[in-house]
Amino acid sequence: MKKLINNPESVVKEMIEGLLAAHPNYLRKLENINVIVRKDAPVEGKVGLVSGGGSGHEPAHAGYVGYGMLDAACPGEVFTSPTPDQMYEAIKAVNSGKGVLLIIKNYTGDVMNFEMAREMAQAEGIEVDQVIVNDDVAVENSTWTQGRRGIAGTVFVHKIAGAKAQEGASLKEVKRVAEKVIANVRSMGMALTPCTVPAAGKPSFTLQEDEMEIGIGIHGEPGTHREKIKHVDEIVEHLMDKIINDLPYKSGDEVAVMINGMGGTPLMELYIANRKVAEILKEKDIKVYKTYVGEFMTSLEMSGFSITLLKLDEELKALLDAKADTPAFKQL
Amino acid sequence: MVITKEDVLKVIDKIVEVIRENKEYLTELDSAIGDADHGINMDRGFEAVKQKLATIPENSDIGTILKTVGMTLVSTVGGASGPLYGTAFMRAGQAVQGKTELTEEDVVKIFEAALQGIKDRGKAQAGDKTMIDSIEPAYKALKESLENNIALPEALKRAVNAAKEGMEYTKNISARKGRASYLGERSIGHIDPGATSSYLMIKALADVINLL
């Protein structure tokens, strides 16, 4: 394992220290617990938005704490859900009396831990509601499984629910737009290389030099299948085919596009991928309202990417365009 | 047979030790079908349990001890195992609230409460390729053995064997819960890490009681 770290056991702690040193005007940390909140939390008259998940997905989620997006993020250990006491402290710290919305990615651990935290906060009389993001089309939904995973589409939920909350909307209204995003957002990813959890010291799976993993999750967990590597245009065609047919996105629709690097992918390659995404959408007469290319929800040093489409209406467009000012996402 | 508070603390020490010894093995199992952190998270949690138990009042009853274990696991393990094992120990503690000694029936109650806690929290059932696949057969074997007047040490041995069979059975089925469920059929052929850590804990309990 070759990493820019001091000690595998202290990566989360030291990352947070560096994050706070970089963004003192945006963020502060609660005492004695790994919870990052807006510097001015709780914001008077505003619904508090709390998200969180394992670390290793930077800039998610702490990078999205700030004006017009999240009020708090709970970073867990690497690829491990944060704990209920972190979430509970986050809820209390951002509650201004208007209630708190939890934005949860659909993983067994995250859902259970947030559920315990919600029970604890509700017992104290705090109004708490939640949405569960499950944008990954790679995993087929079934009553027998946990259902689909939450991946990069979560950032659109942060942005749009965050904008609605910033307007001073009620918890019910903020939840409504968050669910509207969830209903209209779909993603799928792939990887060229695995990633190594620092404390584990070795890659969580192996791929041969000429192989790729399709439908990869954001935790180095294997995807739906493995095949010989192809040209990026063919890979994009496959992912787009799955995504477009899932919602489905139709001729005349307007979408926001996110091309998300998994942590070890050059921006050059992400733009090459986006070239094909744009071409496919044009062919299908689906209008691109806005495109985001970069690293939004990474998986340590994994090389690969995901594509996210969000179908927009006038309300979502306005909220997507609303001002956001956070360390990792700025909308002027 | 009577199990004292000191015996309970010995069992917990043994669990800490066994989880430490199997840290890498559990992580390896998890890397095949999950996200390669089960051993790491469990070890972090039980190390915290060890430190926390050193600080609780001398006169704490067994219920309080088990609840402390549960709450410590919830706040240190994370992932899915934290709330699941945390709930299991907290419910077990509630089941023997105020007691400073345990009878055979209390041990059954502990198993029953822990199993129900995991089912409630995880909404899983036997056959989903989870920790339940070890714990449920162990609970049934223990209960049945005691009902047939088999002594606790032997009954626990039978529970361990049932847990082991259950754990090994997880190799043949596909996961319906947790991250492994995303693999569907591809999870067949791998033992479930949660079922394995549950088996190890039940074995630690039986080993300690058999030495008393």
From TrEMBL, chain A:
Keyword annotations: Glycerol metabolism, Kinase, Transferase
EC number(s) on file: 2.7.1.121
Membrane spanning stretches: none
Coiled coil: none
InterPro entries registered for this protein in UniProt: DhaK_1, DhaK_dom, Dihydroxyacetone_Kinase
Pathway: Polyol metabolism; glycerol degradation
GO CC terms in record: cytosol
Keyword Transferase: yes
Catalytic activities: dihydroxyacetone + phosphoenolpyruvate = dihydroxyacetone phosphate + pyruvate
Limits of the DhaK domain: 7-329
GO biological process entries: glycerol catabolic process
Domain of life: Bacteria
Entry GO MF terms: glycerone kinase activity; phosphoenolpyruvate-glycerone phosphotransferase activity
NCBIfam families: dhaK1, PRK14479.1
Quaternary context: Homodimer. The dihydroxyacetone kinase complex is composed of a homodimer of DhaM, a homodimer of DhaK and the subunit DhaL.
PANTHER family referenced in this protein's UniProt entry, alphabetically: TRIOKINASE/FMN CYCLASE, TRIOKINASE_FMN CYCLASE
UniProt protein name: phosphoenolpyruvate--glycerone phosphotransferase
Organism for this UniProt entry: Caldanaerobacter subterraneus
Automatic annotation (TrEMBL), chain B:
Tree of life domain: Bacteria
Function: ADP-binding subunit of the dihydroxyacetone kinase, which is responsible for the phosphoenolpyruvate (PEP)-dependent phosphorylation of dihydroxyacetone. DhaL-ADP is converted to DhaL-ATP via a phosphoryl group transfer from DhaM and transmits it to dihydroxyacetone binds to DhaK.
Pathway named in the protein's UniProt entry: Polyol metabolism; glycerol degradation
Pfam families assigned to the protein according to its UniProt record, in alphabetical order: Dak2 (PF02734)
Catalyses which reaction(s): dihydroxyacetone + phosphoenolpyruvate = dihydroxyacetone phosphate + pyruvate
E.C. no: 2.7.1.121
InterPro entries: DhaK_L_YcgS (IPR012737), DhaL_dom (IPR004007), DhaL_dom_sf (IPR036117), Dihydroxyacetone_Kinase (IPR050861)
GO cellular component assignments: cytosol
DhaL domain residues: 6-207
Name of the protein: phosphoenolpyruvate--glycerone phosphotransferase
Subunit-level organization: Homodimer. The dihydroxyacetone kinase complex is composed of a homodimer of DhaM, a homodimer of DhaK and the subunit DhaL.
Gene: dhaL
UniProt-listed SUPFAM superfamilies: DhaL-like
Alphabetically ordered keywords of this record: Glycerol metabolism, Kinase, Transferase
GO terms assigned for molecular function: glycerone kinase activity; phosphoenolpyruvate-glycerone phosphotransferase activity
Record GO biological process: glycerol catabolic process
